[in-house]
């Protein structure tokens, strides 16, 4: 039996997939960031000694990588900007107070951490690609949290983090859809 939260997560996946298929994520930009990190371990990584001011990431505002219009078909998401755990993050939340289901995700820019510094959160680290951009995927299988980490350059990256619903096993599907919406707005890898 699927929990109520699991059903909402599945509905969010379906809605986000329909956004990608319909091309709603094409041109508008906006802000994104969850109010609290569902899994603090996904925000913690090893810091490299690179100078953040010389990375591509330092010129990117994470809240401009998605817009409310991009997510309108899924719900009314409110962005919140935060600096935390060595990243500038934008959290998007579909507020229960405003009739949403409370779904939240984060898009973070790490100016001095590469995809090679991603921590294994318990489910291993798997190399992948998002629209042909090098990326890695890691997650916490106990809580079904997932992070898709995309390369900006040799010293910076963008993380898409989706908290899970234990037992639902779909946070990486949602993260992949969101990463697919964000990636076209990232600069080319030098």
Write the layout of secondary structure elements.
Layout lengths: L3 H19 L17 H4 L24 H4 L5 E8 L2 E8 L9 E7 L14 E6 L2 E8 L4 E9 L2 E7 L8 H12 L8
Antiparallel strand pairs: 1-2, 2-3, 3-7, 4-5, 5-6, 6-7
Helix pairs in contact: 1-4
Protein name: DUF3558 domain-containing protein
Keywords: Signal
InterPro entries: DUF3558
Describe this structure in words.
By secondary structure, this protein is α+β, with helices and mostly antiparallel strands. 21% of the residues lie in helices and 28% in strands. The chain contains four helices and seven strands, in the order αααβββββββα. It has helices at 4-22, 40-43, 68-71, 171-182, and strands at 77-84, 87-94, 104-110, 125-130, 133-140, 145-153, 156-162. A seven-stranded antiparallel sheet has the order 1-2-3-7-6-5-4, covered by helices on one side. Helix 1 (4-22) runs parallel beside helix 4. The longest helix has 19 residues, at 4-22. The protein is globular and about 40 Å long. Mean pLDDT is 76; it is low at 1-53. InterPro entries: DUF3558. Residues 37-59 have a biased composition (Low complexity). It holds the Pfam family DUF3558. It comes from Saccharomonospora piscinae.
Main attributes of the structure:
7 strands, alpha+beta, 190 residues, single chain, 4 helices, globular, seven-stranded antiparallel β-sheet
Short description:
Keywords: Signal. Residues 37-59 have a biased composition (Low complexity). The chain has 190 residues and is of the alpha+beta class.
